[in-house]
Design goal:
By secondary structure, the chain is mostly helical. It is globular, with a radius of gyration of 14 Å. The protein starts with 13 loop residues before the first helix and ends in an 11-residue tail after the last strand. It has five helices and three strands, in the order H-E-H-H-E-H-H-E. The mean pLDDT is 82. It has a three-stranded parallel sheet.
């Protein structure tokens, strides 16, 4: 992936991630919003760090390709954001994190 632009389709579960890998893509992206929606929740910050890490692990294991993960706002204020970026769970499952610069909560209900 060091050679420039890489197409990275999204995967919201392990089955979709496996299809992404079989289609020949080099990486996949997991959206916090898609993860929430698949779980039956609106995208308003209800998915926890643990739930997101579980989904990322399932996607990484099923696909065998790098996963770029949406870490939303780091699951809280500054202290939580630091915890999220230092979390061994994130480092063990995702090759990269995307953090939002919005203040939590990011959306109104």
């Amino acid at each position: 992936m060091s050679r420039g632009t890489v197409l990275v389709p999204g995967a919201f579960n392990a089955l979709v991630a496996r299809s992404v890998a079989r289609a020949g893509f080099e990486a996949t992206y997991i959206s916090g919003g898609a993860t929430a929606n698949v779980s039956g929740y609106p995208d308003i910050g209800l998915i926890t760090l643990s739930e997101m890490c579980r989904t990322i692990r399932e996607i990484a294991d099923a696909s065998g390709i790098p996963v770029i993960a949406d870490a939303d706002t780091g699951y809280g204020e500054v202290e939580c954001c630091i915890r999220t970026t230092r979390s061994r769970r994130w480092r063990a499952t995702a090759c990269r994190l995307i953090l939002s610069s919005l203040r939590a909560p990011t959306r109104a209900t």
